[in-house]
Amino acid sequence: MNAKSFLNYLENLRQEYLTNNPGEVASYIPELLKVDADWLGISVVTVDGHVYQVGDSKQDFTIQSISKVITYGMALEDKGVTAVLEKVDVEPSGEAFNSISLEPGTGRPRNPMINAGAIATVSLLADGNAQDKLKRMLDVYQSYVGHPVRVDEDVYRSEKETGHRNRAIGYMLRNYDIIEKDTDDVLDLYFKQCSILVTCRDLALIGATLANNGVNPITGIRALNKEYVPNVLGVMSSCGMYDYSGAWIYNVGMPAKSGVGGGVVAVLPGQLSIAVFSPKLDDKGNSFRGIEICKRISKDFGLHLFHSSQSTVSTVIHARYSGASIRSKRYRIPEQAKLLNELGNKVMVFELAGDLMFTSMEIALSEAEHNFNLLRYLVLDFRRVTSINTGAIHLLVDFIYLSYEQGIAVILTNASEKFLLTNAIKKQIPNYKELQLLHHNDIDVALEWCEESLLSGHATINQTSVALADMVLCEGFTEAEISSLQHVLDKRNYNAGANICSEGEPADSLYFVVSGEVEVVFAAIA
Ligand code: GLN
Questions:
Q1: Site residues for ligand 1, CB cut-off 6 Å
Q2: Residue 5: per-residue pLDDT
Q3: What pTM did the predictor assign?
Q4: So where are the chain's domains?
Q5: Contact of 59 with 39, CB cutoff 8 Å
Q6: What does the pLDDT read at residue 514?
Q7: What is the DSSP string of 299-321?
Q8: What is the mean pLDDT of residues 305-332?
Q9: How far apart are CA 240 and CA 177, in angstroms?
Q10: Sign of the alpha-carbon dihedral angle for 190, 196, 200, 203
């Protein structure tokens, strides 16, 4: 369920900006003037798929430059990073979005977020006829936003009729062989992509899809190969707001993109996306209220990317104890208990907690390494671990190898549902079964196994039989009582693996185990 309080917050924010609406609606594309300059929509979508929207968040408008983000992702998928970088650089230009900012000599556009770079990016899309290319583009949009989208024909025509500057840029790119195809076709598709209709909610979903590693958080459909998400977000954070990009990342601290249609979308990777629609622009071509509202939300909720929460030993290691201080639930005869008290500190349990990534895992593992000279068994428990990423897994696998080299057995408990982790272990540590790495899924079972291994070096203790008087149940009995009890007992021997009593059978006998081991098993009903 979504938080009503956050919706109220967004609504109050919208109210606050209703009358604070400076700037001008873009007029260089005449059709863009046909909007209500007061429209204001705000939408926030989380990577869990919670959608918050207030105001005119369902109003259609043209995506304009925000389309550059999607096309750039498509070009990376079609051609790969190296081929794309050969044609379009990723340096901030510090100039206006429509500047003819090409690298001297090569003619390579500075980045794919300004018009020059975006037009070159269109020319990198996989071949096909014009219709197929547009269809594919619209399909990709659909995977981002979760429903079919279309081109606003009037805006497209208006932009095409007046887009002389973009045509000049296109021919310049053709002159430098950055565009190697028919320039008019490339420009035509560029004009069309800028004229695709979206809502503020759609923009937030595009952002949330990027925040969610390329998968739409509501439909679960992948819109962009995960591999390229950091490239797309990277170029958005350095170049997405044109010549305001530096101040934007300084103040708001999220990769973002704006368009002259009045949309702005900001992405907080792994968390959420904010979209604002407000058609009046500042002198840099960014939505005035879009910027102000993103600044406010970022500040009020501490969303700046560089406001990182730091892991500390106490947040990563929920609890730690040695096998001497906490033992398995298995009953031990006094000699065994005594021995385990002496040897127990060779066993160490770390209950890990929270999101494990490189830094938090590094903290936990270096703590464990401090105890290496003492240890023979290390139990790492994952019950309280909420997520574990590839960086953390990489560290852990290396750590497990190092531990074995030093004669320390590592056991992972409550890890069976951490599939990223268990799959990596199975792949990278082929003898994981033999090592019993994932064999004991519960701390108690793991502790018992460690204790058994410790005790097995002291075979005499295992064979000791216990006198009736030493049984816990007989504590406080007089000698006479012990002897009369002894009188009514008879001695029974069972072979290893034999069953003593099954569920449902009458429980009419009392057993004292004088030697050997008995296990109580609750079998799951099939
Ligand atoms: N279609 C617009 C143009 O090419 C896009 C610019 C923008 O949104 N900043 O001029």
A1: 64-65, 97-98, 115, 159, 166, 194, 259-260, 285
A2: 76
A3: 0.75
A4: 3-307, 313-460, 466-526
A5: yes
A6: 80
A7: HHTT--TT-PPPP-HHHHEEEEE
A8: 87
A9: 25
A10: negative
Instruction: Please provide the average confidence, as pLDDT, over all residues in the chain.
Output: 92
d(CA 95, CA 338): 76
Rounded to 5, what percent of the chain is helix, strand, coil? 45, 15, 40
Ligand 1 atom at minimal distance to the Cα of residue 118? 4
Contact in structure between 159 and 191 (CB atoms under 8 Å): yes
CATH tag for 3-307 (out of 3.40.30.10, 1.10.1740.10, 3.40.710.10, 3.90.120.10): 3.40.710.10
Please give the average per-residue pLDDT across 168-183, as a whole number: 95
User: Residue 18 and residue 317: Cα distance in Å, rounded?
Assistant: 48
C-alpha 259 to ligand 1 mean position (Å): 6
Superfamily designation of domain 313-460: STAS domain (3.30.750.24)
Please check whether residue 94 is in contact with residue 101, taking contact to mean a CB–CB distance below 8 angstroms.
no
Residues paired with residue 449 on neighbouring β-strands, in sequence order: none
Residue recorded with tokens 């207030």: 54
Q: For a pocket test of ligand 1, which of 25, 115, 152, 245 has the largest count of ligand atoms closer than 8 A to its C-beta?
A: 115
Residue 137 pLDDT more than 90? Answer: yes
Whether 356 and 325 have beta carbons less than 8 Å apart is answered as: no
Q: 243-300 pLDDT, tens per residue?
A: 999 999 999 999 999 999 999 999 999 999 999 999 999 999 999 999 999 999 999 9
> Across the strands, what pairs with 41?
55, 277
Two structure tokens written together for 300: 């009020």
Protein residue with its CA nearest to atom 2 in ligand 1: 64
- pLDDT attached to residue 526: 41
